[in-house]
C-alpha cells in the first residue's frame, strides 16, 4: 500500500515537473531573451543605439554580437567600427566591379571612379580608427578618443561626397545599378554616422 502510494506520488511529481518545464520553455520561446546576461546586453545595445541617428540599423547591426558586447561600451564602439569597416569594404569591392561594367555612360563611369577612390579613403580611415581604438588605455583615453573621432568624421565626409556624386547622376537616369550602389553607400554612411555617435557617447562617459 505504501509502495503504491509513493509510486503515485512519484508519477504526479514527474508530471508536474514535466509540465512546468514545458511551460517555462514555451515562455522562453515567446520572448527574444534566452539567458539573463543576453537580456542585459540587448537592453544595453538598444539604449546605446537610441541616441544614434539611425537607431534601428544600429541595433540590428550590433545585436548579432550581443554575446561579445555584453554591457561594455568600449567593445560596443569597437564592434560598431568593425561592422562599418566590413560594410565599407564590401561596398568598395562591389563598386570596383560595377565601374568596369559595359554600357555605363561616361558620366556614370566618372562618378563610379570618384566613389571608388572616396570609399578606399574611408576604408583606410576606418582601419586607422580601429587600430587607434585597440590602443585605448585609461591614461591615453582623451587623446585616443579625439583621434578616433577625427578618423571616423573623415570617413563620413568621404562617403557623403560619394553619395552626393550619385545623387546628381541618379536624377538624370535612375538605373538599377545606380540605385543599388546608392543604397549600399547610404548604408555605409549611416553605419559610420552611428559609429560616430557611439564614439561620442564613449568619449562623454569619461567626462
Ligand atoms: C575589431 O577588429 C579588430 C581587427 O580585426 C580586432 O582586433 C578587434 O578585436 C575587433 N573588435 C571587436 C570589438 O570585435
UniProtKB/TrEMBL annotation:
MF annotations from Gene Ontology: enzyme inhibitor activity
- Keywords associated with the record: Apoplast, Disulfide bond, Secreted, Signal
Residues of the signal peptide: 1-26
InterPro entries from the xrefs?
Invertase/methylesterase_inhib, Pectinesterase_inhib_dom, PME_Inhibitor
Query: What is one GO cellular-component annotation here?
Result: apoplast
Q: Which residues form the Pectinesterase inhibitor domain?
A: 40-198
One of the GO biological process terms? plant-type cell wall modification
Q: What is its main location?
A: secreted
**Where found in the cell?**
Secreted, Extracellular space, Apoplast
The UniProt similarity line reads: Belongs to the PMEI family.
Protein name per UniProt: Pectinesterase inhibitor domain-containing protein
Record organism: Glycine max
